[in-house]
TrEMBL record, chain A:
SUPFAM superfamilies the record matches: Class I glutamine amidotransferase-like
Localization: Cytoplasm
Gene: purQ
Function: Part of the phosphoribosylformylglycinamidine synthase complex involved in the purines biosynthetic pathway. Catalyzes the ATP-dependent conversion of formylglycinamide ribonucleotide (FGAR) and glutamine to yield formylglycinamidine ribonucleotide (FGAM) and glutamate. The FGAM synthase complex is composed of three subunits. PurQ produces an ammonia molecule by converting glutamine to glutamate. PurL transfers the ammonia molecule to FGAR to form FGAM in an ATP-dependent manner.
Protein's name according to its UniProt entry: Phosphoribosylformylglycinamidine synthase subunit PurQ
UniProtKB keywords: ATP-binding, Cytoplasm, Glutamine amidotransferase, Hydrolase, Ligase, Nucleotide-binding, Purine biosynthesis
Swiss-Prot/TrEMBL GO biological process terms: 'de novo' IMP biosynthetic process
Organism annotation: Nocardioides antri
Pfam family, any one: GATase_5
Length: 222, 73
């Protein structure tokens, strides 16, 4: 499958995400924030970083980049979209995902190997994992606290839209220890920790993140 | 402004700093943003409606923030 990785001004992890896509067995296609089309890709990854310098609010300006109009349209048609860290923030600002991400409750940037539980393996990004799988991948954020109003939170929990939950430590004050969520349809997933940094023994804290990039094939052929 | 039910870590930091500087009696601090938009000519109801749209689409995130628009001559 062809997986587009969008580079915004200030994206940091786009090259790592492209590499993870290739290691996961798919073709990585570089997309630029000013592109008006998605170059025929089958899925899109919005990578981590500090797009537009995090000015105004994280992801608030990226949401209106030309490429995002196409991403929003494609997501509405069921295209798999994965937002990691800043990409998660962009998906929330775009209203493709419910809730929002605010400054960590302890106000410090956090960078740690974080244990997670995969709560929903029925998305195109998590199909390669066993339901309830416990994985460890790196987390690095300053504004990763997931919040939503009580009704939204109850709906997310009730509909099984929580994709991953923090284990042992809640590193940023996220409600219900939520590390990642999906939209109702399940094709759009946002995740605060970084699976693209855990795809090779040489550089990662392991290869627990690889499943996010091999899942596309697993979901397609399931 | 962050909605009342949304945690405001920056406001909490300011609240914690005030007593250290000898200021007392403050029971809570919320930190928000202020935007000053300038227009040539009169701010008509149409212009004001446009500003409201700016506020809810870009300037604020209605999921976590409330906003208010005021006009100054």
């Amino acid at each position: 499958m062809k997986v587009g990785v969008v580079t915004f001004p200030g994206s940091l992890d786009d090259v790592d995400a492209q590499r993870a896509v290739r290691i996961g067995g798919n073709e990585a296609v570089a997309l630029w924030h000013a592109d008006a089309d998605l170059k025929g890709v089958d899925a899109v990854v919005l990578p981590g970083g500090f797009s537009y310098g995090d000015y105004l609010r994280c992801g608030a300006i990226s949401r209106f980049a030309p490429v995002m109009a196409e991403v929003v349209r494609a997501a509405g048609n069921g295209m798999p979209v994965l937002g990691i860290c800043n990409g998660f923030q962009i998906l929330c600002e775009s209203h493709l995902l419910p809730g929002a991400l605010i400054r960590n409750d302890h106000r410090k940037f956090v960078c740690r190997d974080q244990k997670l539980r995969i709560e929903n393996n029925r998305t195109p990004w998590t199909a390669a994992y066993e339901q309830g799988a416990e994985i460890t991948i790196v987390l690095k954020n300053g504004e990763g606290g997931f919040v939503a109003d009580a009704d939204t939170l109850a709906r997310i929990e009730g509909e099984g839209q929580v994709v991953a939950r923090y284990l042992e430590v809640n590193p940023n004050g996220s409600l219900d220890d939520i590390a990642g969520i999906a939209n109702e349809r399940g094709n759009v997933v946002g995740l605060m920790p970084h699976p693209e940094h855990a795809v090779e023994e040489l550089t990662g804290s392991g290869t627990d993140g690889l499943g996010f990039f091999t899942s596309l094939a697993a979901a397609t052929f399931a | 402004m962050p909605k009342p039910e949304i945690l405001d870590p920056q406001g909490k930091a300011v609240l914690g700093a005030l007593p250290r500087l000898g200021f007392s009696g403050v029971s809570d601090v919320r930190q928000g943003k202020r935007f000053e938009l300038e227009f040539d000519g009169e701010v008509t109801p149409d212009v004001l409606a446009e500003v409201e749209r700016m506020a809810e689409t870009l300037l604020s995130n209605p999921v976590i923030e409330n906003y208010a628009v005021t006009v100054e001559q």
